[in-house]
């Protein structure tokens, strides 16, 4: 795997780990009787972190498609239509 792919994977993993930490904070706030404002603020942060990770995954796939439009060097062929559907699920 090229270094840029490893870096992208690391960034996506970091985003997901951050989301997990934020979700743990939401659960703790709910269990601890946290204020509605705190719970919703943390929940919005979780949602944003997950969206950003999803967009990063899709952007990486799109970059791969542009770099190798014939799909000759990709392990998992994903069509433009599938990428569009994935993108729209996050939009």
Structure overview:
By secondary structure, the chain is an all-alpha fold. The protein has one domain (3-90): Up-down Bundle (Methane Monooxygenase Hydroxylase, Chain G, domain 1), CATH 1.20.58. It is built from three helices and no strands. The protein has helices at residues 3-31, 36-67, 80-90. Helix 1 packs antiparallel against helix 2 and helix 2 packs antiparallel against helix 3. The radius of gyration is 17 Å and the shape is elongated. The relative contact order is 0.11.
Radius of gyration: 17 Å
Q: State which percent range the strand residues make up.
A: under 5%
Fraction of residues in helices? Answer: over 70%
- List low-pLDDT spans: none
User: CATH homologous superfamily?
Assistant: Metal-sensitive repressor, helix protomer
Q: What is CATH's topology name?
A: Methane Monooxygenase Hydroxylase, Chain G, domain 1
What's the mean pLDDT score? 81
CATH architecture: Up-down Bundle
Q: Quick one: CATH class?
A: Mainly Alpha
User: Main beta sheet, described?
Assistant: none
Q: How many domains in all?
A: 1
**Helix-strand pattern:** HHH
- Total DSSP helices: 3
| Structural class by SSE content | mainly alpha
Instruction: Write down how many β-strands occur, each being a DSSP E stretch of 2 or more residues.
Output: 0
Q: How far from one another are the termini?
A: 29 Å
What form results from the Cα inertia axes? Answer: elongated
